[in-house]
Design goal:
It is a single chain. This protein has helices spanning about 5-10, 35-40, 50-65, 80-90, 105-115, 135-140, 145-165, 185-200, 220-235, 255-260, 285-295, 305-315, 335-350, 385-395, 405-420, 425-440, 485-490, 540-560; strands spanning about 30-35, 70, 100-105, 120-130, 170-180, 205-215, 240-245, 265-270, 445-455, 460-470, 475-480, 500-515, 515-525, 530-540. The protein contains 18 helices and 14 strands. It is α/β, with parallel strands linked by helices. The chain is elongated, with a radius of gyration of 35 Å. Bound molecules: 3-methyl-2-oxobutanoic acid and zinc ion (ZN).
């Protein structure tokens, strides 16, 4: 298809650790989370956040439990600067939260950045520059010495301003990002970072070294290799916090972050729902909830994921895709009949208390843990089967269809979804059930009824039935006795045209709606032509419910010509 494609694209050859350790590790530690939504995310929005939106977002991030939040790039515009002031002057920053601000390596911009921070309690001063050969060659027209000296000189300036801030009582940490880290020479980056540590980490404290996949160009395993190599070769490694800042150009940002954590990264920068330049940043929500699904408390609170999604969509104007992990509208929904059936059984097994560990087929986590309800798990369209419809009738409306009846109702649902070509709402599903099985009172209708229970001379229970059965304009006065209401009814209609129907099976249960409780009786008959037919009777009186069920089944058979 492409000619000489390998001349045009060639994978980067990343460094490899001498002996990889990360593949043998398991993920068991929660990283330091840092949200960069309000800087990296914001700078990628079609309509950047207004100051009000930013405040809403900041409050959301605090509520979710972030302790490190990059709030902007204060030297880039008055709006950005003013927003930092709003947070500080307005007292919006909790005592245990560090605000992070980004600055490029330019003295005047560093000065302006520090100016924005006056009065803040906890700050991370984040500076960055690009050391990669590509940038040196095509963007800056300089060499390694040129870019490293910029970083080193600015680190000294930052140290001077930072010391003043410390004296004024500020808790200040420093963060350096070698932009385009994954396209840079790792040994060169180590060399620069080591010099920055000498300047910025004197007695106590650590330098946050944030290693960005500015454009994701490596496979996740290669990213992990580079991170492990970096950590193993950085002098005085204990004086650094190694963080990663994955982007998602290859669609593997989350995988890259997970493998980087295995490789020893301790800190993660990312955004909610992966908002960010191009294909976005690492999605912190997915990473955190992946941890949750492995039994690790991520220490971020996504127990009401739908509100998070709502606020995010409102302030950013972005849309969270229906299939987005954990948060998408459809990710806890099954349309397929086989899946619905398995979920239905899995949920019952969980409810029975037989299992402690979450194990419901097709549901990676318990939707309730992130505030999602069970009621939308199963949705009905033409792909769905009997199990899903039965599950909804049971969980939403309280009707427990006997197993033999499920395929019959499945066909009714299938016909309706194919006819409408769309999904069935729960209400429509219930209407179909009711209109098909319950309210069928023509041509036969039970106009009057009376039951009498007693015991015969041999001690057997006997039910006497008498009543009026209407057939079109004819009223039949009927009566009969039997060992139960169904037997009594069939004896009562022995002389009518319907006497050839045969009783096959019966089940019943109570259905409650509010304080009202009725009995539902499910009747399976065999028609004179040998076909199975179902009817459902609903009444406060269980005997009457049974008889109504029989009449419904007969009426249905007559309507279908099954006689
Ligand atoms: O992606 C990137 O390289 C960045 C840096 C400024 C950290 O956002
Ligand atoms: Zn970035």
């Amino acid at each position: 298809m492409f000619e000489n494609i390998s001349d045009k694209y060639r994978p980067d050859e990343p460094v490899r650790p001498q002996k990889r350790k990360w593949p043998a590790r398991t993920l068991d530690t929660v990283p330091i989370w840092c949200s960069v939504d309000m800087r990296d995310g914001n700078q990628a929005l079609v309509r950047p956040l207004s100051p009000e939106d930013k405040l809403t977002f900041f409050k959301l991030l605090v509520k979710l439990g972030f302790k490190e939040i990059e709030i902007g790039y204060p030297s880039s515009s008055t709006t950005e600067f003013e927003f930092v002031r709003t947070l500080i002057d307005g007292g919006h920053i909790p005592d245990d939260v560090f605000i992070q601000v980004l600055t490029p390596v330019k003295e005047n911009l560093i000065e302006r950045t520090f100016e924005s921070l006056k009065g803040a309690k906890n700050v991370i001063l984040h500076f960055y520059n690009n050391l990669s050969p590509l940038h040196r060659e095509v963007v800056f027209d300089t060499d390694l010495e040129g870019v490293s000296s910029l970083a080193i000189n600015c680190a000294k300036i930052i140290k001077k301003y930072g010391d003043e801030c410390k004296q004024a009582g500020m808790n200040i940490k420093y963060e350096y990002s070698p932009e385009s880290f994954t396209s840079s020479n790792t040994d060169e980056v180590i060399g620069v970072c080591s010099k920055l540590m000498d300047i910025l980490v004197r007695d106590e404290g650590k330098l946050i070294i944030n290693l960005p996949a500015t454009v994701e160009n490596l496979m996740p395993n290669q990213f992990a290799d580079v991170i492990e190599y970096f950590i193993e070769n950085l002098p005085n490694r204990e004086k650094a916090i190694i963080g990663v800042h994955p982007h998602n150009d290859r669609g593997t940002g989350v995988a890259a972050a997970e493998m980087a954590l295995l490789a020893g990264a301790e800190r993660i920068e990312g955004t909610l729902f992966g908002n960010g330049e191009r294909s976005g940043n690492l999605d912190i929500i997915t990473l955190a909830l992946n941890m949750l699904s492995n039994g690790i408390d991520p220490k971020l609170d996504f127990s009401d994921i739908l509100s998070v999604r709502k606020i995010y969509e409102k302030v950013t104007g972005m849309h969270v895709h229906e299939r987005h992990p954990y948060a998408g509208q459809l990710v806890f929904t099954a349309f397929s009949g086989a899946h619905q059936d398995a979920i239905n059984k899995g949920m019952h097994a969980m409810e029975s208390g037989r299992r402690k560990r979450w194990a419901v087929p097709y549901l990676p986590i318990d939707p309730a843990d992130i505030g999602r309800k069970y009621d939308s798990i199963i949705r009905i369209n033409s792909q769905s089967g009997k199990g899903g419809a039965a599950y909804i009738l049971e969980t939403q409306f309280g009707y427990i269809l006997p197993r033999p009846m499920r395929p019959d109702f499945g066909k009714v649902v299938q016909a309706e979804t194919e006819r409408s070509g769309s999904e069935l709402s729960y209400e429509r599903l219930y209407e179909l059930f009711r209109d098909t099985y319950i309210d069928i009172d023509t041509p036969y209708r039970l106009a009057k009824y009376k039951f009498d229970d007693h015991t015969d001379g041999d001690g057997h229970s006997v039910v006497d039935f008498s009543g009026t059965l209407d057939y079109k304009d004819t009223h039949y006065e009927i009566s009969g006795s039997g060992n139960g209401p169904i037997d009594a009814f069939f004896n009562a209609v022995r002389n009518l045209d319907i006497s050839d129907f045969r009783f096959v099976s019966y089940s019943e249960h109570a259905v409650s709606s509010g304080s009202d409780s009725k009995a539902a009786a499910y009747i399976e008959l065999m028609s004179p032509s040998g076909k199975t037919v179902f009817g459902v009777g609903l009444s406060h009186n269980i005997y009457k419910a049974s008889i109504k069920g029989i009449i419904c089944a007969i009426n249905r058979a007559l309507a279908n010509g099954d006689i």
